[in-house]
Amino acid sequence: MSAISADPAGQSSVVERIAAPHSGPVPFSVEFFPPRSEAEEARLWHAVRVFERMNPAFVSLTYGAGGSTRDRTVRIAGELATSTTLTTVAHLTAVNHSVDELRGLVGAYADKGITNLLALRGDPPGDPMGEWIAHPEGVRYATELVELIGSLGDFHTGVASFPEGHHRAPNLAADTGNLVRKLRAGAEYSVTQMFFDVEDFLRLRDRVVAADPEQGAKPLIPGIMPITSLQSVRRMVELSGSVLPAATADRLAAAAGDGPEEDRAAVRAVGIDLCTEMAERLIAEGVPCLHFCSLNFARATSEVLERLGVDTRGALAPA
Predict the structure, then answer these.
(1) Which family does it belong to (predicted)?
(2) Which residues are annotated as catalytic?
(3) Which range of residues forms the domain containing residue 22?
(4) pTM of the shown model
């Protein structure tokens, strides 16, 4: 199997970036998703330029599986890597892809100079909680995807981790074992699914260290999000299989009020408070980076970062 040649001036690895000097108390990174329309793409690029001024350690772009936004994903990831100063991580999933197609996608990213990939098995299209069916000529597990990427050239690969345990894992021990195997297969770090209870993250970190101290030394990056809508976060939790803690749900519900429409301004204010509190605790616990799910908006995350002491001058514009 021949190697894929990436741009020799390929970007720094995520591990290098989060270890580099940074302003503020901890490095941060931002997750974007591929837009589905010209208006959404304009919003994305506005957010990109706002965050670019704040020097994140890296940005990532989620993957449109099944052809829905796949071509747009590859194009925009390439533009992030070539037309901005941002270190770009491209998500890659095994859903609906043969090994040959996966090789082609890795090659397409390499052609854009992208050497940082996040290897994910991915969720079934249409129903994230539905039955996962492997492509007959593809791979079944993220571990295999990590190994495939590693066989193709000089790439830097990360994987997903799940503070509450993946909903398909029978228990936390099995889920931890899956993560350790992905790290042993060559993943250099992991980024967690979005969560809302810091204790879940800390216990995951403890489990990985206990299972394999060598792999436990690799960066475990928490994924967090400032909540701006109670209705939206409830839907996200439902689709991801994660949990909204009772205390958090109560604070948000109190802010939302009893009217026919939630008080979005009050929910947003509480959501930013909650995210800031989580971030402060995570920083105190020594996390290597904070990864923000931005939903392609900049303002809420920027407000949290400003509270944490990150220089956001000129960045707090409506988005």
Answers:
(1) Belongs to the methylenetetrahydrofolate reductase family.
(2) 31
(3) 14-227+287-308
(4) 0.92
